[in-house]
Specification:
Blueprint: E1 3-4, H1 6-14, E2 19-23, H2 27-32, E3 38-39, E4 57-61, H3 66-79, E5 84-87, H4 90-97
Parallel strand pairs: 1-5, 2-3, 2-4, 4-5
Length: about 100
């Protein structure tokens, strides 16, 4: 599985690269802390598959990286995606290393 660090993602965002970032956490988690990613809860991924492009880099994240890894594994096996990257450490790592103002418990 492809992965990306929070530092690498921050650089891509700062450079305004043509990527898509998807947050697969639940609604209440996104309300508590987020950094502007598109929100598609894990349970809605299949219903909203048309929102996940195959022609650009897509970074998937959750709280720690476990749920996003599961989502990526399913999308790769079932739908042939090869452009997905798991955010190492999820939003917890983002809060620790990039934006300490986020309250991720």
């Amino acid at each position: 599985m492809n992965s990306i660090t929070v530092e690498e993602l921050k650089q891509k965002l700062d450079n305004k690269e043509d990527i898509k970032v998807i947050d697969v956490r639940e609604d209440y988690e996104v309300e508590e802390a987020n950094f502007g990613a598109d929100h598609i809860p894990m349970g809605s991924i299949i219903d909203r598959i048309d929102e996940i492009p195959k022609d650009k880099e897509v970074i998937v994240h959750c709280r720690s990286g476990k749920r996003s890894a599961s989502v990526i594994d399913s999308l790769e096996r079932m739908y042939g995606y090869d452009n997905l990257y798991n955010l190492e450490g999820g939003i917890k790592a983002w809060a620790d290393k990039i934006d300490s103002s986020l309250d991720v418990s």
